[in-house]
Write a structure and sequence with these properties.
With 106 residues, the protein is mainly α. Helices cover 84% and strands 0% of the residues. Helix 1 (3-13) runs parallel beside helix 3 (35-68), helix 1 packs antiparallel against helix 4 (71-105) and helix 3 (35-68) runs antiparallel to helix 4. It is elongated, with a radius of gyration of 18 Å. The termini are close together. The model has no long low-confidence stretch (mean pLDDT 90).
């Protein structure tokens, strides 16, 4: 199997063991306009998405709790926002797996 396929697939599969580190290293140390450079950039974007969404959700939960001072409203909004966050994070993981398999199979 070609090295470019393995490195590109590892960039996507690294969501399980090194979500930012491996795609960032591959992106920084591969030549521009190469397959691995583009695949690592795509994987890095996908790996950053769950973190950004989770941070935004917790900021919103904190804001709701601070501004409403109502534990019921804060609890309901927390359940809804954490549920949405889990769905989006799950989709990002599934998409990373899909991209890794696609890179290996092409």
């Amino acid at each position: 199997m070609e090295e470019r396929r393995v490195l590109g697939a590892l960039s996507n599969f690294s969501i399980f063991f090194a979500p930012f580190f491996l795609p960032l290293l591959v992106w920084l140390f591969t030549p521009k306009e190469s397959f691995n450079h583009e695949e690592a950039k795509r994987a890095l974007k996908i790996h950053i998405l769950p973190v950004v969404i989770t941070v935004i959700a917790f900021i919103l939960i904190g804001g709701v709790g601070f501004f409403t001072n109502d534990s019921t409203v804060t609890g309901y909004s927390s359940v809804i926002l954490i549920g949405l966050t889990l769905v989006i994070d799950g989709i990002a993981v599934i998409y990373s797996i899909y991209r890794g398999i696609k890179v290996l199979s092409n």
